[in-house]
């Protein structure tokens, strides 16, 4: 099954590396991928987000050596000294590989938390289903490393930072880290994930897959801050399996990359479980940002919540696809989904597809979507109180995004998001005002 | 919970209740041999005595159809259709030109009577006796379609005095070739989609309406479609053109006889509204839905689209969908004219093994265009019902507005209700609001009604009627009564 004819299936950028594998899992993934190819616009789940951008490159395996001082500079900018993130235990990956020298020593992790490299572990490729999602198949075939975190039952693990850095080299590179986070019964963890990269000569493609398993009564909070380099492509897939009385609360903030997608498949497998799939995007220039989720209610009495907000300037385009699937057994489901977009430029656009698929009758499910420009009345109110136009606009945009970020419970993560948001807002709006 | 159990039992019982309008009429038919090829198309065209350009148009559509594949994105499941295993032309044998209702085959008239179709003006509003010679005051004109050929048209005179053309499309091809040629396929091109292409190739009849400048059509126009002969797909083609400042309200209703084999219905409806024109198109669809085991029933694959070409024009679609084994239908509005308005009001009821995938498309092209979508979905039995709608704001649609409300009601835990809206915005000043909810009839509402002495059935009926009120109130009066009856029959036992 290694004979791949990638040219007609969008696999050309990875052709050389998809040719031969030793182990069965990778072989199978490459086989699945050869059958489906990378999804085109006729695939419903990719109708609004085109992967054509990948075709301009041949992606190579990244070098293992990198400029350490450059890495330190980026790290310093992401985690300012004496900032709230600084004291947290951290796991740092560069170009998809764990770098122990930059990460906190194993001993500094809280007791009951074990960390190892994932690619060698026996459950590699088990949770995610490669045949259904081609990008996950690509990840399975090409993954080199990733983190594997296990939190023992009833351990309150606190906060852990997961930092994924890209150091560009002369040519285009791609890396496909595979992460897994497992919480035992009654355990808790706040995972703060930051993806960033150096603005360099070569573009890069970051294709991480994260599998989360949250056991009974456990609580996982997952906050992601995506600030990849301007010409980067970031396509992330998250799987979350949530047992009864457990919760998975996630928030993603999308700021960087020319093409980004954050895709979440959350499955509520036990009763009285809860899931939050929230997010915000602030995009400009020609960026395309996509937040896609499939929330499956597979057990009764579960709650799902989703709030996604987009602010779009210049020629940016946002995509929101949110599906809530309520299976026949999932009676007493309570599902709510809200997607809102602010368009600040005549050339910006939004494509949204909130979707309800419901097979149980005793449910309370609703979704809403609104799209529009800034409210003229609100602007007038601020202007009439002496606030200049630009300031008033910025204030309203900031309020719009902050309201979404306020859904994050963890105060450290919340503060970090707030800082990143304000910075991005100032530069984004400034760039936009200068241009127009 | 006993209330709900009772409801469920009644829904199940409903399967046994016979389809009230399931009967076949025994009339001699003129039927083309089975199969679809160029010969069939030439035969249809020849029987209809059509001009050469129309035959060419049909053949081009057929060629396009051959290259197309059946759409599979809708949430409906059915065995593959053998398009060669159907008759594409069936016409009741003609006596030379019936000039009045007296000359129409009495068997046919009895069929309509059984359906309660107001073909005779006396039967129009139940209990109203109208003396001869006063037809002009009556509010509804009927163009009855029996299988593929219009057999009787009433109120011609009143309409023609007003300058309104209302005739079977085959007659329009003969009498007003320029109008038909200009507008046919201008909203739904021959190669638009698989079913539209099929329809364009083999359409046999349908209605043609032309309302000239400044004329307010003096009465509601109404066409009844019926599928009658075994194994005959119906391919109706309706074309409505309303000129500047004119308006029309058009009613379409369907019933079909009971049978075992699935039947294909692929109609195309095209509406054109010019400056300040208004078209109101109302449908009550009650094709045979199949029995309680999902056997039989109509496949209803319809393309309906209206173009608001002129400024301030308005097209309003109202539909009550209770029938068909499978419904695949998305009445759409292309809002081109500045300030034009599109509306879509829909009630879709599915029961037993019915599947419905229906919704609308609102394409905002012009400035200040507005659209409203109100869709109510009721699922019972083992059925699946999907709302699928698109709202697209193009870059020039400044200050365009859309409001969408989709509500689903589930009755029983064996059915499914799905909502799939697509929202695409390319204009910053356009505003889109979308809301959707899914729920069952709440215990509180039931308790409240029961406590005040309403029976289980009356209570459910009251609540469902309230649920659908926003849509039903959009129907013309004559239709609203029928629609309410249909709702009750469709959910008989559970919500009637």
Automatic annotation (TrEMBL), chain A:
Biological process per Gene Ontology, one example term: iron-sulfur cluster assembly
Pfam families cross-referenced by the UniProt entry: SUFBD_core (PF01458), SufBD_N (PF19295)
Span of domain SUF system FeS cluster assembly SufBD N-terminal: 19-159
Ranges in a coiled coil: none
Cleavable signal peptide: none
SUF system FeS cluster assembly SufBD core domain segment(s): 173-400
InterPro entries documented for this protein: Fe-S_cluster_assembly_SufBD, SUF_FeS_clus_asmbl_SufBD_core, SUF_FeS_clus_asmbl_SufBD_sf, SUF_FeS_clus_asmbl_SufD, SufBD_N
Domain of life: Bacteria
Family note: Belongs to the iron-sulfur cluster assembly SufBD family.
Protein name: Fe-S cluster assembly protein SufD
Species for this entry: Acetobacter oeni
TrEMBL record, chain B:
Domain named SUF system FeS cluster assembly SufBD N-terminal: residues: 156-217
SUF system FeS cluster assembly SufBD core domain segment(s): 225-467
Pfam families: SUFBD_core (PF01458), SufBD_N (PF19295)
One annotated GO biological process: iron-sulfur cluster assembly
Domain of life: Bacteria
InterPro entries found in the cross-reference section: Fe-S_cluster_assembly_SufBD, SUF_FeS_clus_asmbl_SufB, SUF_FeS_clus_asmbl_SufBD_core, SUF_FeS_clus_asmbl_SufBD_sf, SufBD_N
NCBIfam families recorded: PRK11814.1, sufB
Family: Belongs to the iron-sulfur cluster assembly SufBD family.
PANTHER family the record matches: FES CLUSTER ASSEMBLY PROTEIN SUF, UPF0051 PROTEIN ABCI8, CHLOROPLASTIC-RELATED
Protein name: Fe-S cluster assembly protein SufB
């Amino acid at each position: 099954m290694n004979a791949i004819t990638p040219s007609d299936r969008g696999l050309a950028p990875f052709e050389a590396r998809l040719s031969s594998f030793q182990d069965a899992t990778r072989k199978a993934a490459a086989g699945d991928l050869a059958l489906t190819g990378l999804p085109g616009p006729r695939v419903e789940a990719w109708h609004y987000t085109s992967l054509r951008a990948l075709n301009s490159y041949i992606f190579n395996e990244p070098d293992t050596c990198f400029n350490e001082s450059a890495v330190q500079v980026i790290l310093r900018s992401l985690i300012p000294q004496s900032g709230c993130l600084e004291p947290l235990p951290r796991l740092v990956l560069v170009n998809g590989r764990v770098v122990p020298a930059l990460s906190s020593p194993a001993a500094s992790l809280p007791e009951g938390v074990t960390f190892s490299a994932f690619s060698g572990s026996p459950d590699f490729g088990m949770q995610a289903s490669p045949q259904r999602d081609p990008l996950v198949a690509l990840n399975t075939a090409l993954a080199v490393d990733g983190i594997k975190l296990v939190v023992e039952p009833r351990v309150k693990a606190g906060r852990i930072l997961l930092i994924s850095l890209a150091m560009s080299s002369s040519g285009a590179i791609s890396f496909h880290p595979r992460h897994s986070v497992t919480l035992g019964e009654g355990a808790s963890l706040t995972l703060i994930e930051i993806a960033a990269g150096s603005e360099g000569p070569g573009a890069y493609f970051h294709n991480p897959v994260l599998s989360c398993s949250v056991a009974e009564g456990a609580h996982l909070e997952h906050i992601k801050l995506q600030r990849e380099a301007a010409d980067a492509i970031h396509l992330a897939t998250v799987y979350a399996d949530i047992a009864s009385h457990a919760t998975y609360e996630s928030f993603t903030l999308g700021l960087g990359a020319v093409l980004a997608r954050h895709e979440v498949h959350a499955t509520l497998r036990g009763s009285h479980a809860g899931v939050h799939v929230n997010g915000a995007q602030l995009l400009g220039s020609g960026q395309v940002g996509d937040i896609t989720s499939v929330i499956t209610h597979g057990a009764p009495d579960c709650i799902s919540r989703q709030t996604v907000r987009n602010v779009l300037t210049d020629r940016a385009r946002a995509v929101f696809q949110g599906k809530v699937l309520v299976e026949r057994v999932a009676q007493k489901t309570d599902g709510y989904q809200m997607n809102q977009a602010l368009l600040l430029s005549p050339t910006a656009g939004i494509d949204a597809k909130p979707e309800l698929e419901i097979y149980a009758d005793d449910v309370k499910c609703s979704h809403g979507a609104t799209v529009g420009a800034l409210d003229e009345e609100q602007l007038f109110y601020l202007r009439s109180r002496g606030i200049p136009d630009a300031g008033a606009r910025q204030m309203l945009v900031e309020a719009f995004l902050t309201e979404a970020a306020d859904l994050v419970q963890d105060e450290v993560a919340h503060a970090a998001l707030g800082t990143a948001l304000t910075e991005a807002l100032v530069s984004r709006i400034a760039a936009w005002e200068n241009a127009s | 919970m006993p209330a709900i159990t009772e409801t469920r039992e009644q829904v199940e019982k409903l399967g046994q209740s016979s389809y009230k309008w399931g009967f076949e009429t025994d009339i001699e038919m003129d039927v083309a041999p089975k199969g679809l090829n160029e010969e069939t198309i030439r035969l249809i065209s020849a029987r209809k005595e059509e001009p050469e350009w129309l035959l060419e148009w049909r053949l081009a559509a057929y060629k396009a159809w051959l290259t197309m594949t059946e759409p599979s994105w809708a949430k409906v499941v059915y065995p593959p259709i053998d398009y060669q295993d159907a008759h594409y032309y069936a016409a009741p044998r003609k006596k030379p030109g019936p000039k009045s209702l007296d000359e129409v085959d009495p068997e046919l008239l009895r069929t309509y009577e059984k359906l309660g179709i107001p073909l005779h003006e006396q039967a129009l509003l139940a209990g109203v006796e109208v003396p001869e010679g006063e037809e002009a005051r009556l509010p509804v004109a009927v163009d009855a379609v029996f299988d593929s050929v219009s057999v009787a048209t009433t109120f011609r005179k009143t309409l023609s005095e007003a300058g309104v053309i209302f005739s079977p499309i085959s007659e329009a091809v003969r009498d007003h070739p320029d109008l038909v040629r200009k507008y046919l396929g201008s909203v739904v091109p021959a190669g638009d989609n698989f079913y539209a292409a099929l329809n364009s190739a083999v359409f046999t009849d349908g209605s043609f309406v032309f309302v000239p400048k400044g004329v307010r059509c003096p009465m509601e126009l109404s066409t009844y479609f019926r599928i009658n002969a075994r194994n005959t797909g119906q391919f109706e083609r309706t074309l409505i053109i309303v000129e500047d400042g004119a308006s029309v309200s058009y009613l379409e209703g369907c019933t079909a006889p009971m049978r075992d084999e699935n039947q294909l219905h692929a109609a195309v409806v095209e509406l054109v509204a010019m400056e300040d024109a208004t078209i109101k198109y109302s449908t009550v669809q009650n094709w045979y839905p199949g029995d309680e085991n999902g056997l039989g029933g109509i496949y209803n694959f319809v393309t309906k689209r209206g173009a608001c070409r002129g400024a301030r024009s308005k097209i309003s679609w109202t539909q009550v969908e209770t029938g068909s084994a499978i419904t695949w239908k998305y009445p759409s509005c292309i809002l081109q004219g500045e300030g034009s308005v599109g509306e879509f009001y829909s009630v879709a009821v599915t029961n037993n093994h019915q599947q419905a995938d229906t919704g609308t498309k609102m394409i905002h092209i012009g400035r200040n265009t507005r659209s409203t979508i109100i869709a109510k979905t009721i699922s019972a039995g083992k059925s699946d019902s999907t709302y699928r709608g698109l709202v697209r704001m193009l870059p020039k649609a400044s200050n365009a507005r859309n409001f969408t409300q989709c509500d689903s009601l589930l009755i029983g835990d064996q059915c499914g209700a799905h909502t799939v809206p697509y929202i695409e915005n390319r204009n910053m000043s356009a505003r889109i609001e979308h809301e959707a909810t899914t729920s069952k009839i709440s215990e509180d509402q039931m308790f409240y009604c029961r406590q005040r002495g309403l029976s289980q059935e009356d209570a459910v009926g009251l609540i469902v009627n309230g649920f659908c009120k926003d849509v039903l109130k959009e129907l013309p009066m004559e239709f609203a009564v029928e629609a309410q009856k249909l709702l009750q029959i469709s959910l008989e036992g559970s919500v009637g």
